[in-house]
Each structure stands twice: as structure tokens, then as C-alpha cells.
Amino acid sequence: MDQSNERRQETRLGYQWPVWFSEDFAETLCQGLMNDVSSGGIGFSCGPNDRCPRKGQHLTVRFGIPRFEGDDPTATVNMTRTGRVCRVENGECGTHRIAMEFDVPLPLRPAEVSTLNSLCSSDPE
Fold it and tell me: Is the pLDDT reported for residue 120 higher than 70?
């Protein structure tokens, strides 16, 4: 693979978890499935019957990032972010793959936090 075309500034955390999105959270929320997340944006899929976002649209998203600590594998930290849709692609079976850039980055790099936590939890005392 030609690395010169890579524009990502950090590793993304691949994680499948529900994500809710809307132009305005006072409206009906649509549900999608998160594919990956970084401090600067999120990738998610939505079904053919959801109101598919369009490129350039401003959205609010609510999602969870795994905590990777303790005994609960479903423990998450919930986040809400606004941002701009920068890409919409057709997926399989009529789904749409959405890439969104956050207006304000997350205060952490999810892939690095997960790596650090997994290393710490496997480290014997």
C-alpha cells in the first residue's frame, strides 16, 4: 500500500458500538453503528431507512468509547460531539458509510488509550 496517500494523523480505534446522530438533538435521533473513532473524527454506518447524512452536513453525534479497565467489557465513556460530514459512501445491502470530522477534538486518542490500558491490565504486579 502506498503510504504517501495516507492522511490520517493518528491510529483509529476500530470499535463497533451504537452511535446516535441528528442535525439537532431536539429532533428524532437516528441510530448507526460506529466503525472507528479517533480524537478528530468518527466513522459509522447507517441503514438504508435512516435519514442518511449528506456531505457537508453539520451533525451532532453521541457515542461511547470503551474504558478497557475493570471486569466489565461493556464499560464505556459516553461522548457527544458536533462536526461536519466529510464523506458518504454506499456500503453493502443499501447501508451508508459516513465519515465525520469533529468541530472540537476529543481530549484523548482512543486507540492509544486502549493500547495503554490493555498493556497495564496484562502487566503482573
Answer: no
